Each structure stands twice: as structure tokens, then as C-alpha cells.
Amino acid sequence: MKRFPIILSAPSGGGKTTIAKRLLETRKDVGYSVSCTTRPARDDEKEGQDYYFLSTSEFLAKQQRGEFAESAEVHGNLYGTLRSEVERVLKLGQHVIMDIDVQGAMQFRSAFPESVLVYVLPPSGEILLDRLRGRGTETRETLKRRLLSALVELQAVQRYQYVVVNDDQIRAAANVSRIIDAEGLRRERLQNVERDVRSIIERLELELDTQSEGD
Ligand code: 5GP
């Protein structure tokens, strides 16, 4: 089966990172594309694992060289997905799970049209607010910026193929896993369908020939 990218988008605090982590823990056929960003690393984040943390000039140089499959400014920082990262994971025989914002998702789909787009919806406004406040790493200013971009990101849900409500992270990750399995069975992703169907047809035709010889 051909492997494909799975894009998870959600308003900030929607819980998509946890879903992506869970899928990476539970499925060997899923790998992660590490993005580049110009935002500073948080205390618990590691270079090359959570992100490649770049200066603005390093980021812009990569952008100019066409190294990004998509890039966007999110909450005042630059983020981008390296084509080489996506291709590295696909070559390993894994689906690529990506946690990218709405603008980036649309650009990415133009670069990789076989991508599957999943929108992770928080179960309610109150819960989204709690999650945004609960992060604890935001200043008043950045929290306000995140709220405003969440409003914009919520409008984009119509452009996604699937919606998963994140009322329970285990259930939500299981639903994304089902989407991956079902998408993997699409005819165009299966490698030997034409050959297999031809071989079945040949067998039936042979049977018909044998029968008409007996008539
Ligand atoms: P955070 O800084 O909290 O890790 O992520 C902030 C936002 O940036 C999230 O909505 C996340 O999905 C988005 N993001 C992370 N990586 C990328 C990327 O490579 N490209 C784009 N367009 N958005 C990204």
C-alpha cells in the first residue's frame, strides 16, 4: 500500500499534538515529520525531535531554496515543513503524521495531493478555553493572539475531509487510526489491484473457454 501524509489541524489547544504522539506510540507504520520554526524552544522541547529551531535568517534561506513543502506565519512565528522530512518518512514505509496549521495544510495538499486532512475539533468552547489557559506558558498577549487565531482556524473546518471530536484523547486517536486504515484501502493507494483483477478475469475467461469447448 502506498503511504501517505496525514495532516492534523485544530485550533491552538485542540489536543492534536497528543493525538499525534499517541499514534506514533501505537502504530509502527506512522512516522513524524519534524517541522522548522523560528519560535524559541519551550523547556521540555528538544532540537530535532519536537522542532528544528531556526533563526529567522536560517528559515528564510531554506524558504528561498524551496526546501519547504509549506510554510506559514503562526502566532507571529514562522513554521515550515521540509520536503526532505516528509520524503524521508515515506521512504521508510511509514505514513507521515503532521501537526500543521490551516494555512499550511492547504499549501501542503498542493505539494502532496494524496494527503488526508483531519480536523480535530474541541468538544466545546469552554473546554477549548480551559486548554488554552491551562497551557501555562502563555502571557496575556500570546493567549489573546492564540484566541484570535483559533477563531480563524475554526472557520476552516469545511475544507477538511474528516472531523474528529477530541472529547477523549484515546478515542480521538483511535478514530484517526481508523481513518488511516480506511484511507489505506482506497483503490488508488493499493499497489497490485489491476494485476490482481486481471488475473481473476483471466481465470474466469479460461473457465468460459473451457465450457464453450465442451458445448
Ligand atoms: P506550537 O508553537 O504550539 O508548537 O504550534 C503552534 C501552531 O503551529 C500549531 O497550530 C501547529 O499546528 C502549527 N505548526 C506546527 N508546525 C507547523 C508547520 O510545520 N507548518 C505550519 N504551517 N504550522 C505548523
Write the layout of secondary structure elements.
Elements: E1 5-9, H1 16-26, E2 30-32, E3 35-37, E4 51-53, H2 56-64, E5 68-74, E6 77-82, H3 83-91, E7 95-99, H4 102-111, E8 116-121, H5 125-134, H6 140-155, E9 162-165, H7 169-184, H8 193-214
Parallel strand pairs: 1-7, 1-8, 2-7, 3-4, 8-9
Antiparallel strand pairs: 3-6, 5-6
Guanosine-5'-monophosphate (5GP) binds at residues 12, 35, 39, 70, 72, 74, 79-81, 99-101, 104.
List keywords for this structure.
215 residues; alpha/beta; Rossmann fold; 5-stranded parallel β-sheet; 4-stranded mixed β-sheet; 8 helices; 9 strands; elongated; binds guanosine-5'-monophosphate
Describe this structure in a few short sentences.
The protein is an alpha/beta fold.
Radius of gyration: 21 Å
CATH class (first level) name of the largest domain: Alpha Beta
The overall number of domains is: 2
Rounded mean pLDDT is: 93
Order of helices and strands: EHEEEHEEHEHEHHEHH
How many strands in all? 9
Protein model, in words:
The structure is a single chain. Helix content is 48%, strand content 20%. It is of the alpha/beta class and 215 residues long. Strand 5 (68-74) and strand 6 form a beta hairpin. Helix 1 (16-26) packs across helix 7 (169-184). The two termini are 43 Å apart. 28% of the residues are buried. Guanosine-5'-monophosphate binds next to strand 5 and strand 6.
